[in-house]
Design a protein that fits this description.
Length: about 90
């Protein structure tokens, strides 16, 4: 899995996807945008390392559901594929 931050787009999101093309598909389906082409015009997402993505996911999960252990959060993170991991709080 690769990890992408959509940080130049209307809504911030972190996506786990097999490649950048799939990341655009996930963003359009789960976050925002009328088409992949529209989102591509806004700019490429920033690819981040697994460690960076996991750290952000852990920090966010603990702040929202502090009772979860790092082991549980990491297991959940590892199971998520071709999906949004974190999303702009204005969309929740």
């Amino acid at each position: 899995m690769k990890y992408f931050e959509f940080d130049k787009h209307g809504y911030w999101a972190m996506v786990a996807a097999e490649d950048e093309e799939k990341a655009f598909e996930v963003y359009v389906e789960e976050v925002a945008g009328e088409s992949i082409e529209e989102i591509e015009e806004e700019g490429e997402p920033t690819e981040i390392t697994r460690e960076q993505a996991l750290n952000k996911y852990i920090e966010s999960s603990i702040s929202v559901a502090g009772y979860l252990t790092i082991e549980v959060i990491t297991k959940e993170f590892n199971e998520r594929k071709n999906t949004t991991l974190l999303i702009d709080s204005s969309l929740t």
